[in-house]
């Protein structure tokens, strides 16, 4: 097996978000989460539902498997049967996410995507995050505007859950007593000190942080030869 790239470790980390998910709708946003969702469907999550992003359910090869009318899509969204992997322009220690603006809301220094569906996503179904460039500008002490709702704001939301955050440096979860972010694994070639230096808040971590798992030979072949033969994953993570 040739050397595994950082992008491929990120694919594996994203795919693991859907392990044991059962029959839920995967909504990956971004190249690497999309490759990860298709890899999960082909291997350890065969019941995962994939969509073309419009109205069709598709198989891992893109073949149409069914029709997903808008009303049924909303039922999945509001009933906890969808798992989204979104991006984050900012994210804080409790998983509050910002994709709307940088700076004060009344006079922002930069306008971004807008709130969009982030509040509904995070309050009504599991939501993970993908950050291709881990830095203190993204992992901040306090987000400038709350779009995706974190653990400190969602005590009464029955389907709220943030299974994981994946970045180009490692994998993070919220398995701490106060539901603050924890470093669950680092990608090979990355140190815990590097992750702490690139994070704008105190990050929980065990004494020995493991490495993100290696892909199997079959998984690597699927990524390289079947799912993403053009290598688009490398454009999202440049190392």
From TrEMBL:
Pfam families xref list: CoA_trans
InterPro entries reported for this sequence: CoA_trans_fam_I, NagB/RpiA_transferase-like
SMART domains xrefs: CoA_trans (SM00882)
Source superkingdom: Bacteria
Sequence similarity: Belongs to the 3-oxoacid CoA-transferase subunit B family.
Descriptive protein name: CoA-transferase
Species name: Streptomyces phaeoluteigriseus
């Amino acid at each position: 097996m040739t050397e595994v790239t950082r992008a491929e470790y990120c694919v594996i980390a994203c795919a693991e978000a859907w392990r044991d998910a059962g029959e839920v709708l995967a909504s990956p946003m971004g190249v690497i989460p999309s490759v990860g969702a298709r890899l999960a469907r082909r291997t350890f999550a065969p019941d995962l539902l994939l969509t073309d992003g419009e109205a069709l359910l598709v198989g891992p090869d893109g073949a149409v498997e069914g029709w997903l009318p808008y009303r049924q899509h909303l039922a999945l969204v509001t009933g906890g049967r969808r798992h989204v992997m979104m991006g984050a322009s900012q994210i804080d220690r409790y998983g509050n996410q910002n994709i709307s603006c940088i700076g004060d809301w009344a006079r922002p220094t930069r306008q971004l995507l807008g709130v969009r569906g982030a509040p509904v996503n995070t309050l009504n179904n599991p939501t993970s995050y993908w950050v291709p460039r881990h830095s203190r500008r993204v992992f901040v002490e306090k987000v400038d505007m709350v779009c995706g709702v974190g653990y400190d704001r969602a005590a009464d939301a029955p389907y709220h859950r943030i299974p994981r955050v994946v970045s180009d440096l490692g994998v993070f979860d919220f398995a701490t007593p106060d539901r603050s972010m924890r470093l669950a694994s680092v990608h090979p070639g990355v140190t815990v000190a590097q992750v702490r230096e690139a994070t704008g808040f105190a990050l929980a971590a065990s004494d020995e942080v493991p490495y993100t798992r290696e892909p199997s030979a079959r998984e690597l072949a699927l990524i390289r030869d079947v799912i993403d033969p053009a290598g688009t994953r490398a454009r999202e993570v440049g190392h």
